[in-house]
């Protein structure tokens, strides 16, 4: 090997090492106290499209034009009311806070004018080496920190809410380095093309939990009626107990649906026998979609016990599914 080639190889190795060290110098914890895929989901990602369209880092459709961060969402507004902490992803100093803006209605309709305060109630934190994080849409009155306060990684900042431009309960996390928006899933700026290889900034223990899911199914359930979309978003679809003489209706709530996707809802009885199988085709691209269907009660009524529901979304050879169950008791 020539000296020139050896020198080039050495320089490349040094640059790679420097890049790896830089990438590993700032690691992120979760901005929300939850278990991804179980009681919270990544619903929207940063936009990497160069035009008026949208593409997340995996070249998927989870987000909207110009979206500059990552949205960690809860199942529904009822889960939000249980009180889910928003937490600092890394140690730093609180630079600014905002509180006092109301949550939007639980059914997901934007009723309160947020003007230019899309973030709603939020917290801005500065970290070492030019890093900065911003946390948006916190529940009013829940902020637990003040400007100038030092915070630790994992420290509670407030509670998940729906303030500002929020039609579902979530925390929006924006990450910046020297003022430039960075995607934490591959440590690239928003102007980098989707599919660009990079180093995830999440702590190693979180990376498998935060693996990309093209269609997050966040809610499945059984109701005694066909629930309205707003009921499902609010978490009110199962307010009434199941009864032997009432219908059994399965439903789902999912994000990132595309034209041509297939949705299947399956209901099984206490003995494992099939109660109903329903199939739907998605006719239009849908950032968020609910579907429901089921069966009327038989003449003799439904037998008591635990009923199961499975929701599946199929796109070509790829499928996503979520299971749920609910008890039906004798009157």
UniProtKB/TrEMBL annotation:
| Matching CDD domains | M23_peptidase
* Superkingdom of the organism of origin: Bacteria
> Which Pfam families does its entry note?
Peptidase_M23
Tell me where in this chain the M23ase beta-sheet core domain is found: 67-184
| Stored InterPro entries | Cell_wall_metabolism_enzyme (IPR050570), Dup_hybrid_motif (IPR011055), M23ase_b-sheet_dom (IPR016047)
Q: Give the Gene Ontology MF terms in alphabetical order.
A: metalloendopeptidase activity
**PANTHER family listed in its UniProt record:** MUREIN HYDROLASE ACTIVATOR ENVC, PEPTIDASE-RELATED
Q: What is this protein called?
A: Peptidase family M23
From which source organism is this entry?
Arboricoccus pini
């Amino acid at each position: 090997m020539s000296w020139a080639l050896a020198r080039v190889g050495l320089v490349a190795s040094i640059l790679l090492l420097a890049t790896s060290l830089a990438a590993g110098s700032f690691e992120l914890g979760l901005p929300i106290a939850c278990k991804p895929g179980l009681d919270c989901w990544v619903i929207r990602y940063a936009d990497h499209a160069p035009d008026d369209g949208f593409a997340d880092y995996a070249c998927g459709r989870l987000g909207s034009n110009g979206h500059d961060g990552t949205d960690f969402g809860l199942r529904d507004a009822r889960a939000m009311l249980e009180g889910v902490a928003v937490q600092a992803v890394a140690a730093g100093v609180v630079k600014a806070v905002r509180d006092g803006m109301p949550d939007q209605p639980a059914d997901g309709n934007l009723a309160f004018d947020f003007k230019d305060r899309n973030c709603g109630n939020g917290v801005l934190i500065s970290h070492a080496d030019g890093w900065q994080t911003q946390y948006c849409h916190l529940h009013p009155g829940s902020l637990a920190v003040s400007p100038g306060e030092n915070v630790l990684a994992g420290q509670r900042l407030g509670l998940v809410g729906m303030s500002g431009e929020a039609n579902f309960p979530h925390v929006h996390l924006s990450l910046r380095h020297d003022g430039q928006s960075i995607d934490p899933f591959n440590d690239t700026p928003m102007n980098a093309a989707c599919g660009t290889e990079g180093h995830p900034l999440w702590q190693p223990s979180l990376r498998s939990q935060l693996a990309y899911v093209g269609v997050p199914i966040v809610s499945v359930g059984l109701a005694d009626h066909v629930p309205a979309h707003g009921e499902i978003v609010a978490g009110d679809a199962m307010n009434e107990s199941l009864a032997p003489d009432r219908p059994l209706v399965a439903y789902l709530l999912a994000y990132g649906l595309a034209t041509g996707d297939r949705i299947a809802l399956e209901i099984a009885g206490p003995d494992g026998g099939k109660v109903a199988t329903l199939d739907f085709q998605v006719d239009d691209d849908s950032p968020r979609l609910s579907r429901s269907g089921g069966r009327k009660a038989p003449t003799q009524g439904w037998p008591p016990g635990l009923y199961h529901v499975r929701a599946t979304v199929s796109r070509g050879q790829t499928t996503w599914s979520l299971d749920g169950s609910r008890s039906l008791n004798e009157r």
